[in-house]
Design brief:
The chain is built from 13 helices and 23 strands. It is α+β, with helices and mostly antiparallel strands and about 425 residues long. The strands form six sheets. Strands 3, 7, 8, 9, 10, 11, 12, 13 and 16 form a nine-stranded mixed β-sheet that branches. A five-stranded mixed β-sheet has the order 20-19-21-22-23, sandwiched between helices. The model has no long low-confidence stretch (mean pLDDT about 90).
Length: about 425
């Protein structure tokens, strides 16, 4: 992609409304633009990152045996009344009417729709277990949207729903999803904790949150420094425990001491049990031929929120430092004097074709700007590796490779494959 053709409206300063690092950098890097409060347009650079995360989520969900569907964003009032959530959800549920004055809502979640689908299409325990998911836009009318896409009203989410014949089968599916979420976050190279949590408006018997650790996290979590123990302090506050007294105390699991950290909730998994199936009369015939209520699980992960969480955890004073798996481009060819020197322009295009043929996603900065401007933009948007073609190429047929982490190397342009092998490990 020629950078001169890319819709990339970078900013030197972030608007005053941007409070947290991810919001500031996503605006400055030309990834998003605000349409209305809590509603954003994803520009080409931001969309590339969003799609990469979406694809990782999809790959791991498919590998777990889950099946993808796509349910409507607009949902009828009648389904929500079956679970008493039409009123219970309160003003977060955006209610609308069609031309016939029939009531609908914009879906913040899809328990009712998926349960209706299964109760009308699955008859026997022999068809279970099922784990059905979608990656789809959701809408929650937040009272105070803030922090950009981290707490917007419209967002992209992966939500999955499992249907099981009994409690033991639900436990198996729940653990499978727990491990799947771990694989997703590990592929994204994010530091995270699995946290005991409150089930909130979704309900159910038990739930856990997945938190990306970051200074600007909205949630406060108590974690062990030597084990996987972690709990959302909201749960402790409901039980009357003094959070300030926890710091440095022995972990309840006997391993290490407690630390108080900030986290960004990016995923939440629930053992719903029978609460939705009972209210919506979702049954199958069991081994004895009798109607048996389904056991359900619910598993959500915020795809668009993961973009912001990755930035909150990976940035410096220059801009974004993407984990390689989700960087919008792998390499930026910084051509100094592209518009003035045919040798540089020709060599830049040849290198672009070579690297693209090797499977890399490549930018070619063909703009008229100087070295300083081009490098600042590349560092702001977080490209992992810059290849600089300029004066040294004219004199010695050499290029400079400079990683986003700061390592640099001067090498013959003919030695590009060997040099790239070195930077792959960085």
């Amino acid at each position: 992609m020629l950078l001169s053709k890319l819709l990339l409206p970078t900013l030197k300063e972030a608007p005053q409304e941007a409070e947290v690092i991810s919001h500031k950098l996503m605006l400055r890097a030309g990834m998003i633009r605000k349409v209305a409060s809590g509603i954003y347009t994803w520009l080409p650079l931001g969309l590339k990152v969003l799609r990469k995360i979406e694809n990782i989520v999809r790959e791991e969900m498919n590998a777990s045996g889950a099946q993808e569907v796509l349910m409507p964003m607009v949902q009828p009032k009648e389904l929500w009344e079956e679970t008493n959530r039409w009123e219970k959800m309160g003003p977060e549920l955006l209610r609308i009417q069609d031309r016939h004055q029939r009531d609908f809502c914009l879906g913040p979640t899809h328990e009712e729709v998926i349960t209706d689908l299964i109760r009308t299409n699955v008859r026997s325990y022999k068809e279970l277990p099922l784990n059905i998911y979608q990656i789809q836009t959701k809408f929650r009318d937040e009272i105070r949207p803030r922090y950009g896409v981290m707490r917007g009203r419209e967002f992209l989410m992966k939500d999955a729903y499992s249907f099981n014949a009994d409690e033991a089968c639900l436990q198996d599916t729940y653990l499978t999803m727990r491990n799947t979420y771990k694989k997703i976050l590990e592929r994204l190279d994010l530091d995270y904790k699995i946290v005991a949590a409150d089930s909130g408006a979704i309900g159910g018997d038990a739930s856990e949150e997945f938190h990306v650790l970051a200074e600007n996290g909205e949630d406060t979590i108590a974690i062990s420094d030597s084990s996987e123990f972690a709990i959302n302090t909201e749960v402790l506050l409901k039980e009357g425990e003094d959070i300030s007294s926890l710091e440095g105390k022995p972990s309840p699991d006997g391993n290490g001491t407690i630390q108080i950290k900030k986290g960004i909730e990016v995923g939440h998994i629930f053992q719903l049990g029978k609460i939705y199936a009972e209210s919506m009369k979702a049954n199958v015939l069991n081994k004895e031929g009798r109607a048996s209520t389904l056991h359900m699980g619910c598993y959500g992960i915020g795809v668009s929120r993961l973009v912001a969480a990755a930035i909150e955890q990976n940035n410096d004073e220059k801009g974004i430092v993407w984990p390689h798996s989700i960087a919008p481009y792998d390499i930026n060819i910084v051509a100094i004097g592209y518009d003035k020197n045919e040798q540089i322009a020709e060599a830049s295009h040849e290198l672009y074709e070579q690297l693209t043929g090797m499977g890399y996603e490549v930018l070619l900065d063909d703009r008229k700007d100087g070295y300083g401007t081009k490098m600042k933009d590349s560092e702001l948007i977080g490209i992992p590796l810059n290849i600089i073609i300029g004066k040294q190429f004219i004199e010695n047929k050499e290029i400079e490779l400079k990683s986003r982490a700061g390592e640099s190397s001067i090498n013959p342009i003919s030695d590009i494959e060997t040099v790239l092998d070195f930077f792959k490990d960085k």
